């Protein structure tokens, strides 16, 4: 039996009672009518959850559409975009699509834990003056969360638009948006959030941006009319009314993740990095060809420190406890061959 741990999905479906409630509400929807183009009720529920005004929230068809809105609003052909490396592959795709050049500040992956040069990033941002700055925290694929002080400083010093991508923020012990509750977000900030990861709603495609006032207006201008269908909207609203189920599962998720890190680090020659997300970056003392057997479907991020002959990097999405026990046993087994 194959395990699919390559897309950073939540392995747990909605609790049965919540899913039943969603389906009951959907059954009574008028399918012949367009949704409210302003998504007033949805934005109010998101506002109650995240603690920021509803008029500063922009809904998207997944976090990917929020990123598309940002690129289409602020990036022109020939512009510079700045991010860390490694990072989310969609940043590269969108930069290429919009004819921009993605500049990166590489992390050091050779020490005990990935190290990001935050001072260098701020210096490069000042010198390069990019049209768009992208900071994913926790970072994909390392799972590392950037210091809140660095994110705040980057937002304050950025002269253009900055996207703080917190798609995995709920899995972390700290996230920048929560730290800003009670404060006004800087005008140039877009914080990307999603219901795909911690909420376990990847299939309904619902992301959102929490913005500085000027940014909310710009993103709404780029947003397609009726970009969220009535099925996704209703599912999201119902789940947001049952948020306690999310928080109950996150603690058990962290326990499974951290236990997997310990087990992998107990295998001679293997290194699993600590993570604040729902995935773990692993450095294997074996080439990819040995690991890529079809039994365990993981992501192999293209990192420069990888050797085709002797080592490879693996990003493993966190599944159930049984899934992760099986992955650890699999790694241990191929190590002994």
Short description:
With 337 residues, the protein is an alpha/beta fold.
Give a description of the structure.
This protein has 337 residues and is of the alpha/beta class. The protein has two domains: 3-11 and 245-335, Aspartate Aminotransferase, domain 1 (Alpha-Beta Complex), CATH 3.90.1150; 16-240, Aspartate Aminotransferase, domain 2. It contains twelve helices and twelve strands. The chain has a seven-stranded mixed β-sheet, sandwiched between helices. The chain has a three-stranded antiparallel β-sheet with strand order 9-10-12. The protein starts with a strand and ends with a helix.
- Protein structure class: alpha/beta
Domain module count: 2
- The overall average pLDDT, rounded, is 94
Beta-strand level of the residues, as a percent range?
15-25%
| Rg result | 20 Å
How would you describe the shape?
A: globular
According to CATH, what is the topology of the largest domain?
A: Aspartate Aminotransferase, domain 2
CATH class of the largest domain: Alpha Beta
The CATH architecture category of the largest domain equals 3-Layer(aba) Sandwich
- Low-pLDDT runs: none
Q: Name the CATH homologous superfamily of the largest domain.
A: Type I PLP-dependent aspartate aminotransferase-like (Major domain)
The spatial strand order of the largest sheet comes to 2-8-7-6-5-3-4
């Amino acid at each position: 039996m194959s395990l699919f741990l390559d897309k950073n999905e939540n392995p747990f479906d909605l609790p049965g009672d919540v899913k039943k409630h969603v389906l009951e509400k959907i059954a009574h929807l008028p399918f012949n009518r367009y949704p409210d183009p302003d998504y007033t009720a949805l934005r109010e529920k998101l506002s109650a959850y995240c603690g920021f005004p509803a008029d500063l929230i922009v809904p998207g068809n997944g976090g990917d559409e929020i990123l598309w809105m940002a690129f289409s609003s602020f990036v022109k052909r020939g512009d510079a975009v700045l991010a860390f490396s490694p990072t989310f592959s969609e940043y590269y795709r969108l930069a290429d699509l919009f004819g921009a050049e993605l500049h990166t500040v590489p992390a050091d992956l050779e020490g005990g834990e990935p190290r990001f040069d935050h001072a260098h990033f701020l210096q490069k941002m000042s010198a390069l003056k990019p049209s768009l700055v992208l900071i994913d925290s926790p970072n994909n694929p390392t799972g590392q969360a950037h210091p809140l002080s660095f994110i705040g400083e980057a937002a304050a010093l950025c002269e253009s638009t900055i996207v703080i991508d917190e798609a995995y923020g709920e899995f972390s012990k700290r996230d920048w948006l929560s730290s800003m509750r009670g404060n006004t977000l800087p005008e140039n900030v877009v914080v990307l959030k999603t219901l795909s990861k911690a909420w376990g709603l990847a299939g309904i495609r619902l992301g959102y941006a929490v913005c500085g006032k000027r940014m909310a207006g710009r993103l709404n201008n780029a947003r397609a009319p009726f970009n969220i269908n009535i099925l996704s909207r209703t599912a999201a609203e119902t789940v947001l009314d049952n948020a306690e189920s999310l928080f109950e599962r996150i603690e058990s998720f962290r326990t499974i993740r951290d236990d997997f890190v310990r087990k992998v680090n107990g295998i001679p020659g293997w290194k699993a990095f600590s993570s604040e997300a729902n995935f773990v970056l692993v450095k294997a003392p074996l080439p990819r060809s040995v690991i890529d057997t079809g039994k365990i479907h993981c992501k192999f991020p293209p990192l420069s420190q990888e050797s085709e002959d002797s080592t490879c990097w693996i990003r493993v999405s966190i599944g159930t406890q049984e899934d992760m026990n099986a992955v650890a046993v699999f790694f241990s087994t191929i190590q002994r061959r």
